[in-house]
Amino acid sequence: MLPVTEKLSADVILPPPRKGALLFTRTQPIVAIGISTGGPEALEKVLTQLSRSCPGVVIVQHMPGNYTGTFSRRLNGLCAVDVNEAISGDRVKPGRVLIAPGGKHMLLKRVGIEYVVQIVDGPPVSRHAPSVDVLFRSVASVAGHNAVGIIMTGIGGDGAQGLREMRDCGAKTYAQDEKSCTVYGMPREAMKLGAACEEVTLLKVAELINGIR
Fold first, then answer.
1. Does residue 166 form part of some domain?
2. Residue 138: active-site member
3. Is residue 137 in a domain?
4. E-assigned strands of the chain?
5. Which of 80, 99, 145, 166 is the most buried (most CB within 10 A)?
6. Annotated catalytic residue within 36, 72, 126, 131
7. Exactly one of 138, 158, 168, 180 is catalytic; which is it?
8. Is 105 a catalytic residue?
9. Does 18 reside within a domain?
10. Does residue 101 register a pLDDT over 50?
């Protein structure tokens, strides 16, 4: 029997947001999505419906490193928005979707009134690299109420704590509903924590993102 590896938290990559000490100036909104099992099909349904005027989107899809580049290029050919595997320094802007490279963590950073991503090495968090918890925590820390968080289909609990942190810092947060999930694992854990303000169907996710101003 293989040994069970320790389940590390996002603390190994970055500290928790400082609750009660965060002041956010108004910036362009951004959307952060965490997704796992059933994600490729679900993301295709969502991203192909996004308009080029939609807010910038950052995504962690649990996927090995040798697949995320191919996956991103395929989506880019299908979508009106630009879809890319993220590299450090990429700007988050309207009409652009950045997908975390497999095997590495993606963090959001603020530069003036703009947001960029940083790609970092590190151990698996919640047993995943990239980890949704890491992305969501970084978004909570630097974007606060300027962000929208969405946790979607997937096994396990990665992202639930990070989504709770986003909500605590003023973000609007959503979870995909059980009926439209391939696996209602990650959204269930988020709902248990009170991390999501509302559940939405898969068909409503693109409409939600397109309507953010």
1. yes
2. no
3. yes
4. 30-35, 56-61, 82-85, 91-92, 96-99, 105-111, 114-120, 147-151, 172-176, 198-200
5. 166
6. 36
7. 158
8. no
9. no
10. yes
